């Protein structure tokens, strides 16, 4: 056990017209060094805010973020700047996250310059060219502008820029959702190669469960600011427990012949407002199994099997204790 | 033939002073009554251009159809004038656009927007009362409370807006519905809702559908026929079974299947297609896919492949030459 990133009861509320918008609510996560945690959820569930709060791009309302055992939630701007070269982010939209008035070489080299990692311009250029080769960008692009490139190449610039300061931890905020499928697969493979080479740790944010399966070791499913289920990637796909995770999994259209015969379990309704949410399970309004227990009090995340955390009243305490084996669990569903 | 819509050798270009973009290069497609055809391809393959030329709404100054014909229920669409076309658009062929956020008018209520088509076209709903009840009926059909028709688009979520757009398209009971990436902008659970609704409606209303998408999963869910487009050409066409049960595919289609992260699949790595879509102002010689193809042969670089037919399955690739001989 060697967690690089740990959050404890992390909360981020925004003030909206005198009310509180619960973007991230009591999230506990740990990411082991060199591993990938996938965060999945629909738009508006707070996954991007979670990534930004962990990086300190928005201050947390309460709770803690630990980086290599050190609390970084309340560090000074000077300390935060030093941390920037350890933690980086790759943004969702490769069209708007790159300055259109800078040349590619300059964009990739800038973090090295501002963080004082390589002050010598000539050596910086060498390093940038090396990085560009690593992420699969041709040398000739060094003096080009972003508008001359397509989405896939721009996203590679985003990756190279994040890597330029040799970070240990990278938040990938939907890095492939703006790309075509064939390009998407290229970028995912690139990210996995880089992780193997450099031992990077990723927080991989996405709305696409099928993408996250390939890249993650562990997956956290978020719904309206709360983490509703967390398990290893294999376990989650094999044996999802929370009704929302099940609905998400069954909603993915699968490109094969059997897919047509399986009836999709369509969950009704849409995300309710995250502003001053009612107590209880946030998913209760859409849940086909919702009962009285769900809306009475907070439903907390409990470890139902080793490493598999679920927040759902369907699985009661006594059953959990009784169901030490997997058989007991599946019988309940 | 019972075909409703026939497209023959369609060629479309976008022209500006200096460059010519060859967007659609000789497409043959047909759509029968009550059939659903899925048109699959990546950005820039020419899917939307084709849809726009069916409705004759290509950008006026730049987009030009330079060859081929489109035949809709005996009517030569490309030869019709604007007045005749207006009678078809929205009434007999209608379209759902990709982005529900931008295809609604923010200054009109949802009810007014659905109503507009019914009033403009010569439908059976003449009086105000009839129109109103039709609006209620159609909104209910797509799962929106009729009481919400006085709301403006900004009061709806993305999924609900897409339902409004679908309601607008269905208001005049069209024979053909062209849906251009109807679920791309939506979340998965909402996508599942909209897809299952469209599938039901198609059955209920007995219309034909041309579904444009880049997602093979969506195609597997609701299409009877599939056409794969690459660089303005249809490189593979077949029935649902040809695509999802048979395993003989065009190398590009194989690449598409390989690129999709499959939740059933245990392998850790994806097999993407290397390289990028060709520049449509400067398409490669021979087969347009050859620079990216793993099975590229000498002949592919010089001679464009012909279409090899095997039953209902048509593939445009030199690799299939032998199959036809058999």
Helix content estimate of chain A:
25-40%
User: Order of strands across the widest beta sheet of chain B?
Assistant: 6-7-8-3-9-10-12-11
CATH class of the largest domain in chain B: Alpha Beta
Second rung of CATH, namely the architecture of the domain at 3-86 and 167-240 in chain A: 3-Layer(aba) Sandwich
What is the structural class of chain A?
Answer: alpha/beta
Which residue ranges of chain A are poorly predicted, with pLDDT under 50 across at least 5 consecutive positions? 320-333
Percent of residues in helices of chain B comes to 25-40%
**Total of DSSP H or I helical runs spanning 4+ residues of chain B:** 11
Q: State the name of the first-level CATH class of the domain at 3-86 and 167-240 in chain A.
A: Alpha Beta
Give the second-level CATH assignment, the architecture of the largest domain in chain B.
3-Layer(aba) Sandwich
N-to-C span of chain A: 32 Å
User: pLDDT under 50 segments of chain B (min length 5)?
Assistant: none
What would the principal axes of the Cα set say about the shape of chain A?
globular
**Percentage of residues in DSSP E strands of chain B:** 15-25%
Q: Compute the CA-based radius of gyration of chain A.
A: 21 Å
Q: Mean of residue pLDDT of chain A?
A: 86
Give me the CATH fold name of the domain at 3-86 and 167-240 in chain A: Rossmann fold
Order of helices and strands of chain B: EEEHEEHEHHHEHEHEEHHHEEH
The H-level CATH homologous superfamily of the largest domain in chain B, spelled out, is P-loop containing nucleotide triphosphate hydrolases
- Shape type of chain B: globular
- Please describe the biggest sheet of chain A, giving its number of strands, its sense, and whether it closes into a barrel: 8 strands, mixed
């Amino acid at each position: 056990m060697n967690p690089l990133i740990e959050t404890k009861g992390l909360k981020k509320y925004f003030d909206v017209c005198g009310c509180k918008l619960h973007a991230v609510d009591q999230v506990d996560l740990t990411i082991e060094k060199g591993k990938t945690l996938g965060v999945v959820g629909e738009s508006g569930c707070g996954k991007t805010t979670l990534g930004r709060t962990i990086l300190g791009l928005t201050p947390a309302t309460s709770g803690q973020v630990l980086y290599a055992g050190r609390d970084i939630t309340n560090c000074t701007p000077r300390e935060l700047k030093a941390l920037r070269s350890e933690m980086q982010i790759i943004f969702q939209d490769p069209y708007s996250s790159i300055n259109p008035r800078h040349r590619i070489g300059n964009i990739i080299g800038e973090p090295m310059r501002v963080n004082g990692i390589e002050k010598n311009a000539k050596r910086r250029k060498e390093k940038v060219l090396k990085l560009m080769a690593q992420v699969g960008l041709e040398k000739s692009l060094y003096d080009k502008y972003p508008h001359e490139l397509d989405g896939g190449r721009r996203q590679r610039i985003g990756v190279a820029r994040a890597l330029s300061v040799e970070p240990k931890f990278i938040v990938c905020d939907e890095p492939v959702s703006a790309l075509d499928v064939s390009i998407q697969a290229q970028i995912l493979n690139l990210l996995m190669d880089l992780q193997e080479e450099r031992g990077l740790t990723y927080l991989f944010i996405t709305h696409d469960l099928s993408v996250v399966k390939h890249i993650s070791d562990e997956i956290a499913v978020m719904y309206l600011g709360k983490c509703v289920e967390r398990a290893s990637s294999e376990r989650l796909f094999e044996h999802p427990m929370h009704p929302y995770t099940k609905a998400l999994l069954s909603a993915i259209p699968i490109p094969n012949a059997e897919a047509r015969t399986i009836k999709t379990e369509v969950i009704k309704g849409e995300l309710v407002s995250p502003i001053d949410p009612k107590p209880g399970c946030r998913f209760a309004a859409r849940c086909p199994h919702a009962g009285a227990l769900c809306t009475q009090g907070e439903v907390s995340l409990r470890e139902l099997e080793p490493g598999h955390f679920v927040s759902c009243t369907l699985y009661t305490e006594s059953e959990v204790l009784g169901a030490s084996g997997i058989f007991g669990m599946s019988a309940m569903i | 033939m019972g075909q409703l819509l026939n497209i023959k050798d369609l060629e479309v270009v976008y022209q500006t002073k200096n460059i010519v973009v060859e967007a659609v290069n000789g497409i043959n497609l047909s759509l029968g009554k009550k059939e659903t055809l899925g048109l699959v391809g990546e950005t820039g393959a020419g899917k939307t251009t084709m849809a726009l030329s069916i409705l004759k709404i290509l950008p006026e100054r730049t987009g030009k159809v330079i060859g081929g014909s489109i035949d809709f229920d005996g009517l030569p669409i490309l030869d019709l004038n604007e007045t005749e076309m207006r009678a078809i658009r929205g009434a007999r062929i209608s379209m759902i656009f990709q982005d529900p956020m931008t295809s609604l008018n923010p200054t009109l209520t949802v009810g007014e927007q659905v109503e507009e088509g019914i009033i403009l076209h010569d439908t059976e709903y003449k009086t105000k009362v009839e129109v109103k009840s039709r609006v209620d009926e159609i909104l209910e059909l797509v799962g929106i409370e009729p009481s919400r028709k006085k709301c403006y688009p900004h009061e709806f979520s993305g999924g609900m807006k897409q339902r409004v757009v679908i309601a607008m398209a269905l208001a005049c009971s069209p024979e053909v519905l062209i849906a251009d990436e109807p679920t791309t902008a939506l979340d998965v659970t909402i996508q599942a809702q909209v897809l299952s609704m469209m599938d039901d409606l198609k059955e209920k209303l007995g219309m034909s559908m041309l579904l444009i998408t880049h997602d093979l999963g969506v195609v597997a869910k609701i299409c009877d026929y599939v056409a794969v487009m690459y660089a303005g050409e249809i490189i593979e066409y077949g029935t649902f079974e040809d695509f999802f049960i048979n395993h003989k595919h065009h190398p590009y289609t194989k690449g598409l299947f390989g690129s999709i992260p499959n939740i059933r699949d245990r392998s850790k790595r994806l097999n993407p297609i290397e390289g990028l879509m060709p520049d449509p102002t400067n398409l490669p010689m021979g087969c347009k896919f050859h620079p990216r193809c793993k099975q590229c042969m000498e002949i592919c670089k010089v001679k464009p492949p012909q279409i090899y037919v095997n039953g209902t399955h048509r593939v445009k690739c030199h690799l299939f030459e032998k199959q036809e001989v058999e």
